[in-house]
Amino acid sequence: MSIKVEDYYPRATFQKMKAFADQQETPFVVIDKQTIADSYDQLVSCFPFAKIYYAVKANPATEITELLRDKGSNFDIASIYELDKVMKAGVSADRISYGNTIKKARDIRYFYEKGVRLFATDSEADLRNIAKAAPGSKIYVRILTEGSNSADWPLSRKFGCNPDMALDLLILAKQLKLEPYGISFHVGSQQRDIDVWDAAIAKVKVIFERLKEEDGITLKMINMGGGFPANYIAKTNDLQTYAEEITRFLKEDFGDELPEIILEPGRSLIANAGILVSEVVLVARKSRTAVERWVYTDVGKFSGLIETMDESIKFPIWTEKKGEMEEVIIAGPTCDSADIMYENYKYGLPLNLSSGDRLYWFSTGAYTTSYSAVEFNGFPPLKAYYI
To answer: Which positions does the record annotate as the modified residue N6-(pyridoxal phosphate)lysine (predicted)?
Structure first.
């Protein structure tokens, strides 16, 4: 496997990032802000009818929040800590939704006191907490969707409820003097099968119609979550193709008068903007006759690469070393046997790779710094630079 830089970054962008990276001590991630700005503009161009709510959990850096704030983005928030950070950056409450369905009653109250009025839910207990702590707020119910088989990072089972329960919750929301506002779903992160949006939107249409006809409740919004892919090893369609197909699905079900549409991108906005740089610590074999080499780097699952768990996300890895390639096992530096990134999926790296050489992990702007451990084995969190 040989990675070509031009398949992932414009040459000038890569040269700028590498020139900066060459002056830093590993491990770290360097993120190009212009790439994020361009990704945001492309998303707005592809979905001109939608409101963008950036999923802050993907990368909560103030540099990114400020950039997207100035671009006009809204923000999907998962905790009071994210809320404080985003509001400190000057984002007003009317541009925020509390998208986590698992939340404490006192945290709901905190959001409400800060001015937030848009809340996700998927259970009766949570809905009743919202009614008490955030009276009169807008509610959208997250439903279960299928698509885990085609998403590299599935988000099913833990979040969402059956459509029949969603109906019950929205009826209850009205009874509790909340505003039944809409439905949300998430087809899974790094979703490669566009058709799963079609099935999800069809479920939403049924809920909209049943509530209006049977209960006199008119929903106003569909939150389609995230799921658009980043540029990893497995090829995907481009964003324009996703947008054209999803727009067609929406119009087939809702006609030209679409409800309010919300998108919550995280990975697709910022993953491609990042390069994680690590150093080879050791290259070793387990026996005299072992076929495979083990390549140990100074970054691993606990320092930003947790999405290699079960080898779900396959990051492109590039090195300046050239020559004959050989399959390797790639592992991190910690004293934990789980800290192996790739063993079953066969990465090829040059035979002459040795201690001190650098590995460049492409498309690592999302879910690296935010997943990095604070001090596992004493290693500090992953450093990040925004240029």
So the answer is: 57
The token duo for 97 is 């939704």
How far apart CA 154 and CA 356 sit, in angstroms, is: 35
pLDDT of residue 234: 82
Quote the Cα angle for 278-341-287, to 5°: 95
Is 335 marked active-site? yes
CB 366 within 8 A of CB 266: yes
Q: Tell me the three state secondary structure of residue 155.
A: coil
Classify 215 as helix, strand or coil: helix
State whether residue 17 is helix, strand or coil. helix
State how far the Cα of 323 lies from the Cα of 351, in Å rounded to an integer. Answer: 7
242-279 pLDDT per residue, tens:
999 999 999 999 998 899 999 999 999 999 999 999 99
Name the active-site residue from 335, 344, 374, 375. Answer: 335
- What does the alpha-carbon distance between residue 269 and residue 229 come to, in Å, rounded to a whole number? 9
Q: How far apart are CA 6 and CA 12, in angstroms?
A: 10
What's the pLDDT tens digit per position in 124-167? Answer: 999 999 999 999 999 999 999 875 555 555 556 688 899 999 99
Query: Has residue 9 got a pLDDT over 90?
Result: yes
**Structural domains in the chain?**
34-270 (3.20.20.10), 272-386 (2.40.37.10)
Quick one: pLDDT at residue 187? 87
- Contact between 316 and 308 (Cβ < 8 Å): no
- For the stretch 191-231, pLDDT in tens is 878 989 999 999 999 999 999 999 999 999 999 998 888 88
